[in-house]
Amino acid sequence: MVSLLSFFFVFFTFTNPCNSQQPTTTKDYLQLPLLHKKPFSSPSQALSHDTHRLSLLHARRHDIKSPVVSGASTGSGQYFVDLRLGTPPQSLLLVADTGSDLVWLTCSACTNCSNRDPGSAFLARHSSTFSPYHCYDSACTLVPHPDPSPCNRTRLHSPCRYEYTYSDGSLTAGFFSRETTTLKTSSGRETQLPNLSFGCGFRVSGPSVTGPSFNGAHGVMGLGRGPISFASQLGRRFGNKFSYCLMDYTLSPPPTSYLRIGGGFPHDVVSKIRFTPLLVNPLSPTFYYIGIKSASVNGVKLPIHPSVWSLDQSGNGGTVIDSGTTLTFLPKPAYRLILAAFKRSLRHLAKPAEPTRGFDLCINVSGVARPILPRLSFRLVGNALFAPPPSSYFIDTAEQVKCLAIQPVDSGSGFGVIGNLMQQGFLFEFDRDKSRLGFSRHGCTRP
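RESULT FIELD:
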């Protein structure tokens, strides 16, 4: 998992005061560009970051359209969203993360901001609409605070201070604030949306938020199910759903991906979308869980007991869709059977290769123009079939060497993850009102 952005969250059940706007009848949607990642400098780096990301995710138990762009030039393994915040707007890149809720970015408390490079941080002093929440504002209860809390009832101007601490000691801390964001709708016009709640991080430290996986990013756009996520705050105005396509990073130049808040799709796209229910885990309410019924290799169903995929009453197990994770992690019993089936399939079709550290299956494809790789598919709850192409789970780790980009996870204490590599080339629609996930191999080429 490469974004390494999972926090220890405090969850609340009362109504979100951060966005009091009423639903709109407009058919506009918001569309933001997603900038694509590039491959890691080494596969072991990707695995190390993903494994760390998974440990952070597991520790957390207690219509707009925009391009999604790549962290390629900086070596990041993330998809970035270009967010324009403030008055006048300042453009900053945030990691698109369905595995967290908070929208936060690095802020500068500079007094002479002319010395700062444009786009290096959000310059609060340069915005006429920046406003921290007061520490006794109801919105302030939605974020964790420093201990002891610095809130002082005798002070007229006591800002809401938040502090998110990571399991590795990394943190982001600053003022929980509100600001105007400028976005383009599907009609091509710009719209200004006031009072977007976000964390203005004046203190950001540690490998999770300053390491290689974060290169080029200025913060995180949380798209989770919690009340302070970007999807939640904008969803009630533009339709309580969002969607994205993560395009293939191996293409050069990489095609533009998009994050869409609200809106619909042409009939020819809608007719090809398949749906599976989004499940809820009360112990991890941020995450988008899906139900897997079975797995097949080359059309042959594997003898995996259904309980291997299930989410139990203690909140363990299950599978989440996470845009902030690169590789895919599956329960160990399922992983072993899939790995064995892959090895049988490849026995006479490809030459074995020296294993890359951390990967259990690697093949040498030298001299083979189009290697025939095993086809993996998942039958989901609702009978939808998710069948990603082999390029979504075999990655190049060296010249003419491909390795299986799936890892095992202990289902007794954690959960599986469908990472962004396996999501590539699919349109995913997170329909929060109907609590379902739609996906299709069609529709990603449309802006």
